Amino acid sequence: MKITAVDPFYLRMPDITTAADGTQDTLLVRVRTDAGFEGWGECDASPLVSLAVYCCPMSHGNIINIRTSLIGETLESPDDVVRLSEKTLRNGLDIQQIEHAYSGAEIALWDLIGQKLERPVYRLLAEMSGTSDTAHPKLPYASVLFGDTPEETYRIAVGLREQGYRAAKFGWGPMGKFGEVNDIALVRAAREGIGTEARIMIDAGVVWGTDHETAYQRAEAFAQFSPTWLEEPLSPDAVDAYGALTQKHPSVPVAAGEGSNTYRMAEDLIVHGGIRFVQIDAGRIGGIMPSFQVRQLAEQHGIQYVNHTFKSHLSLAAALHVFATNPDFSLLEYPAAGSALSQRLIVEPFPVASDGMVRVKELPGLGVRVDTAAIRPYLASVRIEVGTDTVFEQGSL
Amino acid sequence: MKITAVDPFYLRMPDITTAADGTQDTLLVRVRTDAGFEGWGECDASPLVSLAVYCCPMSHGNIINIRTSLIGETLESPDDVVRLSEKTLRNGLDIQQIEHAYSGAEIALWDLIGQKLERPVYRLLAEMSGTSDTAHPKLPYASVLFGDTPEETYRIAVGLREQGYRAAKFGWGPMGKFGEVNDIALVRAAREGIGTEARIMIDAGVVWGTDHETAYQRAEAFAQFSPTWLEEPLSPDAVDAYGALTQKHPSVPVAAGEGSNTYRMAEDLIVHGGIRFVQIDAGRIGGIMPSFQVRQLAEQHGIQYVNHTFKSHLSLAAALHVFATNPDFSLLEYPAAGSALSQRLIVEPFPVASDGMVRVKELPGLGVRVDTAAIRPYLASVRIEVGTDTVFEQGSL
After folding, report:
1. Which of A20, A222, B244, B310 sits at a 20 to 30 Å CA gap from B61?
2. H or E segment to which residue B389 belongs
């Protein structure tokens, strides 16, 4: 089949705030073929900047937009997805945003080829890599922010326990901003509120920058509350500081990686940063295949792969296919709340089963369906003119 | 003084081709203050994608555009430039294109503060770092492409000798595409054409991907023609392959780094790739300060820093200030030809002096002046609408 259309859609809530909530807007990408199939993907990135990568005028042979690279191309097998990714990334070699933008299209190509071959994406990946094609359930963890105070954090944690969560990640807010005593009180409150049975994770939101000494002290101080990991204590680029931190073997394992815009950034953090959990967003790193390659690298290094997902369940579907077949990678970042846009985006979101677990869908492609009628009210129609040319005019959803 | 306006301008030639000529279009950034000064910078990046980073609607606290971060801010000293860079990059943490886009604004801020303090930018950098503030001349090298055949390459090299060039870089074209015999014949022709006195550099244009064995064989085979370096034999992200190549100590030193979109990418190539020349584009890596930090890292590692500049002499000015004060870093990539747009952009381009050298300008700021009248015909006016909002409307040049 041939690719006939590649359409990005910028969707957003009526009011956007500075809150650390990645579901306030999104960029969806729809790819259509002459065989009647259509595939969908979602980017975790600035919608307008990424959309520009689909339509920017050519600058020279290394700045060619994604639509130009894909439209008219043949898509028959997973090998074609790999080939088209190589072509698109080579054509966009000098576009820094290329991975963020292409992620949506790459995921859509997998969705398409899975539909055509009537196989879930995770099985296609298993075949390509010659590994097990048995999917395993994942333990979802809720992502919440710390309350402004330990008391508020305690109430939030109690609420999660009452909702039945067996794992929860508490993120930044006051963490790291008011000294060690307050930091410890926050983690204590999270643990006491959710109970001793549940897993907790601590997300420091890059608050200590390059200060690996403080990060180490906090990891040691938090160990009494048995968190599964301490996430992003340092800046994404501070790989040497991560290395200095992990060489001390802190009692709480270090997690990082959501800021990996390329495979190399993840590899750098694993090999030189010494992290124990690598967190990859398929909607940023260039899609499903580079995420799968990081999963394989994690397997080689004996560390844990975890998804980073703070968008809709379309992104969750892509994330799940990447590591569904590895039973040792058992944790799943699970977007439980999020904006109305995010919650309505997919016809049937992933349920948490009665055993508390989430499973990949045994359906062709990604296995999820975009609810175009439900999200149409959120479409922010985009029009871009350069000189006398209209380089982008919104397609219909 | 306060920043009152931040205006990107997309300029381009009437016809853009896939030729490897980065001067076919450009993105200029003008920053104005209430003190009447205006500063300019140039990005080496997709103009439309980078322009979108100046005006994209907020997505959350980590996706805030450059204009929002800068307008209304105070600018009194070099420390303010550093502070505003930290703010802008933190606000744009989840915008992959942030460094490419911000480069133009950062360079413009240095131009402004230099004008205000009546000092050339290189002196401000010397003061901040406590290093020598004496500028040294650089030996410019011409960047040309290999001819399609050894015979054509020979003619090109003879032409360069006749123009008086004492150094020239020959780039990709047929290199690496027709086997070892042809590759060697191309380099032999370049050397024989330009003569034994001149320096030659070989730019392989990432042709061998991750194949460090072939890259090593070519480096050894080219050694008989004494090239100063072999540039980008491998893909920008193939740091392990660079490491494998350089651990064999090839007879021709390896150069790379133009694809460094962040300081970490350059650091990674130096520390783990083992390169001997690091080539930095201030119009990509986030401006003058991160380039200066790579220069300092190169000094610590005892390797050579070289600019990468394939835009106008506005970019050349920014590049020169970064390493003017280090006499050991004596080579300068010098855009000699390029499009009419590129050649007309600056009122007085940098001349090659009678001693064959190029010198930084002893004038406040960058020391160059944009010829707005000359480039106005090349302005591609941009208009971007998102929903009912016009998020970008072209300012007047």
Report:
1. A222
2. strand B389-393
Report strand pairing: B38-43 vs B25-33: antiparallel
Same domain, B170 and B28: no
**Contact between A264 and A252 (Cβ < 8 Å):** no
pLDDT bracket for residue B173 (50, 70, 90): confident
On the question of pLDDT at B314 being above 90, the answer is: yes
Q: Does A149 reside within a domain?
A: yes
Contact A49 B56 (CB under 8 A): yes
Q: For the domain that residue A21 is a member of, what is the CATH number?
A: 3.30.390.10
pLDDT beyond 90 at B335: no
Q: Say if residue B231's pLDDT is above 90.
A: yes
A357 burial type by CB count under 10 A (0-12 exposed, 13-18 middle, 19+ buried) = middle
Amino acid identity of residue A100, one-letter, is H
Secondary structure of residue B226 in the 3-state scheme: coil
Q: Where are the beta strands (DSSP E) in chain A?
A: 3-12, 25-33, 38-43, 139-145, 167-171, 199-203, 230-231, 254-256, 277-280, 304-307, 331-333, 382-386, 389-393
- Partner A contacted by B49 (CB < 8 A): yes
| Separation of alpha carbons A154 and A192, rounded Å | 7
Tell me the Cα Rg of chain B: 21
Whether residue B21 and residue A47 make contact (CB cut-off 8 A), yes or no, is no
Strands B382-386 and B331-333: unpaired
Would you say residue B322 lies in a domain? yes
Interface test with chain B among A42, A97, A311, A376, by most B beta carbons within 10 Å? A97
Q: B104 with B168, same domain? A: no
Average pLDDT, chain A: 96
What are the beta bridge partners of residue A385? A390, B383
* Together in a domain, A227 and A101: no
Q: What is the per-residue DSSP string for B41-77?
A: EEE-S-HHHHHHHHHPPP-BTTB--HHHHHTT-B--S
* Among B25, B48, B265, B300, the residue to mutate for chain A (most A Cβ within 10 A): B48
Q: Tens digit of pLDDT for each residue in B259-299?
A: 999 999 999 999 999 999 999 999 999 999 999 999 999 99
Q: Name the closest residue on chain A to residue B264, using Cα atoms.
A: A237
Q: Which residues contact A115 (CB under 8 A, 6 or more apart)?
A: A37, A39, A364, A365
Amino acid letter, residue A299 = E
CATH code, domain carrying A312: 3.20.20.120
Shortest Cα distance, chain A CAs vs residue B26, angstroms: 8
Asked if A146 and A61 sit in the same domain, the reply is: no
The answer to whether the CB atoms of A268 and B263 lie below 8 A apart is: no
Domain that includes residue A220, residue range: 139-344
Alpha-carbon distance A366 to A39, whole Å? 9
A158 vs A261: CA distance, rounded Å:
35
Q: Are residue B64 and residue B176 in the same domain, yes or no?
A: no
Min Cα separation B115/chain A (Å): 31
Type of residue found at B3? I
